[in-house]
Amino acid sequence: MGELRLMKGNEVIAEAAIRCGCDGYFGYPITPQSEIMETLMDREPWNETGMVVLQAESEIASIHMVHGAAGSGKKVMTSSSSPGISLMAEGISYIAGAELPCLIVNVQRGGPGLGTIQPSQADYFQSTKGGGHGDYRLIVLAPSSVQEMNDFVETGFKLAFKYRNPAMILTDGVIGQMMEKVVLADYIPRVTDEEIDRRHGSWVTNGRKPHRERNIITSLEMDSLKMEQNNIRLQDKYAKMEEEDVLFEEVQCEDAEYLLVAFGSSARICQKAVDQCREKGIKVGLLRPITLFPFPKKPIAALAKQVKGMLVVEMNAGQMVEDVQLAAGCMIPVKHFGRMGGIIPSPAEVVEALEQKLIGG
Amino acid sequence: MAKVIGAVVVDNEECKGCGLCVVACPQDVLSQNKQVNGRGYHYSFMKNPEACIGCSNCATVCPDSCIVVYRVKIQEVRNEPVLVS
Amino acid sequence: MNLADIINPNNLVYEKPKLLTENTMHYCPGCSHGVVHKLLAEVILDLDIQEKTIGVSPVGCAVFAYNYIEIDWQEAAHGRAPAVATGIARCNPDKVVFTYQGDGDLASIGTAEILHACNRGENMVVIFVNNGIYGMTGGQMAPTTLLGQVTATTPNGRDAGRNGYPLKITELIAQLPGTSYVTRQSVHTPASIRKCKKAISKAFQAAIDKKGTSFVEVVSTCNMNWKMSPVKSNEWMVDNMFPFYQPGDLKDSTKADPASYTPLKN
To answer: What share of chain A has pLDDT > 90, as a percent?
Structure first.
């Protein structure tokens, strides 16, 4: 059993990074996630594990530093909030194109533009549909508790290295700023250079060794036939993710007549809404996608045969609802309820929306 | 008296006919061929091979590294060149 | 003595550097990049660091630099090579990392990345090939295009009022305390090429010795987009580029007492 602490979500990201043997963090301050880098700088992990922590001149530089370090086979990460992630879109696309593993944390705030520093889930499209240019996907993990902020750092790295693809923890100011008890992970030693050569010698750029060909990391390919093959390889990888690494949670779905679908902080609100509905005698369940990509299509399709309707609750104008509609087919009504601009809906509002949009309608 | 003589070998197919070696040569050894190579370039050649001193200037300025340079020192004994090295 | 006697492996004095690959360079005839690549290959081999050197190639004509030197390479996005190199260098402090960038890449879109990498004194070498024009995209104005110089986007010559002034970024870089060696070289004559090789060698030695950022600008030609022959381009460069981008060392603190500067902390 690991160490039990009361911590903020953002601080836990930093702590988990150190403990999981992360080699480097490159970031730039932006609210509401600056505590991640502040905690790292305060913890001085370079003295403890040898982890590099660098404050870059911009989000653009941060993600390209991650690009470089990831290319050398290191376990590296960055974090930011929505406008900063937009700036990183270029680098994320390059990393996905070059097939490098890394972890990106997006503690979302409301947009568009400078928007608000208050929480939001309006980056769902950006995170799950690509975000930058070209056909690529991120592995997107949506924690709904401080404990999951801790757990998903290592999960994110594991999946990133499994697929050689960037992974993202998509959270928001609610989870990032909230304090909860958390069981911290035990320390994992950083991977040695010898181990990197052994595991990743076929692609890392850490100096050409006598026993191997030189490695070149690039996303560039001028031959269209080869480039198409590269694209097909990426798509195969994403298909494999959908086959093997979908994560979701079902709450009281067994007898549900109506289903709430929500991720991250919205899912916590919905959990309370489920209880309130059940007190009123309405049989409601909750499906919480944990991986937003790969998206849990199959459980939603299965529940579409069971329930009378679904309400997708998001802190945005309706983004994940499109994926739920696709997964559910046209068998049942799938409606959206959302608040925007940094407003967090209350459980009572969710219950009311369910009654108005599905039960009453 | 020792004398230095040299020779260059141009990779005719790699040469892009830029002409930089021609002007870099202090002995006016090189010129661009009227013929073109497989890629359509007027590749360099030794129009005046006996003047080459093997100084490597041509190869040094060659952006495509397609010139190899050789050099020997000879000593003139009874008017017959003898190989020294 | 006939040619066949001279052309003998025993008499070899100059050949293609062993660290250059067999790939035919994609550069235009007479392009300076080929010479700079050759010097890099020679220096890396001379210093025997081919097993710990990682090159970061740019976006621009040198985007395919990775095809030509037998070392590990990483391709960066446009202008971001110094950030990519920072990531590699910080996480691999015993490796030798260099960026290879053109003037559009380094002095325009990547200005923030290069200034801050140099200002932090990242332990790396920057090779900056400045030919005053965008080559790959077809000869548009670069930040380093001279006043009056004709390009695809300044068809009547660069006008300060409309286009701003040419940027002497190397002079800016030399002001930064993180840099230990800042020099401006050229590769238009055998003598300048030998001098440039010494400068590149010194820059790599500084990186091996962990002395911060070394910055080698190579004032170059782009004969294709300058619309001149390679030979004429060199003459034009000497007459027009050199008065503004004067060759020579701008800064050399590689011999400074280590106690006089703050080493990079990882």
So the answer is: 98
